[in-house]
Automatic annotation (TrEMBL):
This is GPN-loop GTPase 2. It holds the Pfam family ATP_bind_1. The keyword GTP-binding applies. Gene3D superfamilies: P-loop containing nucleotide triphosphate hydrolases. Heterodimers with GPN1 or GPN3. Binds to RNA polymerase II (RNAPII). The lineage of its organism: Eukaryota, Metazoa, Ecdysozoa, Arthropoda, Hexapoda.
Length: 299
């Protein structure tokens, strides 16, 4: 029987470790056995109990001290080191053949956009363990408040999806922060989740003296993103179980997860907090259900 899992990526500070911790708890509530695998050699303060931790093999701090590299070079060195010693990781993972696996990955963008080690590592794990993986990419929702940052995030997501070659779900994390500062957003939430007409953002870039100088470049980037047309987002607040359920549902669809009978029953109970992506607005998400009311509905 195949295994299932997610490898969680995204820029530094996008909430990967918090996501792994909260998604692990959420899936356990549904009846799944979950193991979190930390393969970020720079992450020395995890909130969760890691079933496997790359720090037992190598850390960025050690590489910086003994190989005399900077932090970025050290992280790439660590990933290449792990790729060459993949048997170490595979032996650890074979102890969790009945678990749903969450991989907490490094936050350095280039290892997903144009470096091959991470793709090779995940492909080898998938093939060796018969593991159905989905790439979950977190993007901090504060990028939506700045047109140039949002376009940069879209470009990064597009590059990552083509480079990694895995089923892919993009998530706007910390959507609760976007709710608090919704007055700074130029458009409604669906504009950013569905990646609607980017020409409107191009007009906004012209209002900034700095970005206005690069009109032709901005237009070319927007044209390329719209030409590929593969990026969309799921909004997520890890404290809002409605958005956790929406993310879970889309990720399970992406990696083909098969429910057992007990889980399926729990999933049906969760229907009280299910939302369709088309129903989500900032006003709807602002109305955060109380945990007690959700638990009462499930009881």
């Amino acid at each position: 029987m195949p295994l299932y899992g997610q490898f969680v990526i995204g820029p530094p500070g996008s909430g990967k470790t918090t996501y792994c911790d909260e998604m692990s708890k959420y899936l356990k509530e549904m009846g799944r056995q979950v193991a979190i695998i930390n393969i970020d050699p720079a992450n020395d303060s995890v909130k969760y109990e890691a079933a496997v931790n790359i720090s037992e093999l190598i850390t960025v701090e050690d590489v910086m001290e003994y190989v005399n590299l900077g932090p970025n070079g050290s992280l790439i060195f660590c990933m290449e080191y792990l790729e060459k010693r993949l048997t170490w990781l595979l032996e650890k993972l074979r102890k969790y053949t009945d678990y749903y696996l969450l991989f907490d990955c490094p936050g350095q963008v280039e290892i997903y956009t144009h470096h091959n080690s991470m793709k090779n590592i995940m492909s080898a794990i998938q093939n060796e363990l018969d593991l159905r993986l989905c790439c979950v990419q977190l993007i901090d929702s504060h990028y939506c408040s700045d047109p140039s940052k949002y376009i940069s995030a879209l470009l990064m997501c597009t590059c990552t999806m083509y480079q990694m070659e895995f089923p892919h779900v993009n998530i706007l994390s910390k959507i609760d922060i976007a709710i608090k500062h919704k007055s700074k957003l130029l458009f409604n939430l669906d504009y950013y989740t569905d990646v609607l007409s980017l020409d409107q953002l191009l007009d906004s870039l012209q209002n900034d003296p700095f970005t206005a100088r690069y009109y032709r470049l901005n237009k070319a980037i927007i044209s390329m993103i719209e030409g590929y047309n593969i990026v969309s987002f799921i909004p997520l607040n890890v404290k809002d179980k409605r958005t956790m359920e929406l993310a879970r549902k889309n990720i399970d669809k992406a990696n083909g997860y098969i429910f057992n009978s007990e889980e399926n029953q729990n999933a049906m109970l969760n229907s009280v907090m299910q939302l369709d992506i088309n129903d989500l607005t900032l006003d709807v998400l602002e109305d955060l259900p109380k945990t007690d009311s959700i638990e009462m509905a499930q009881d």
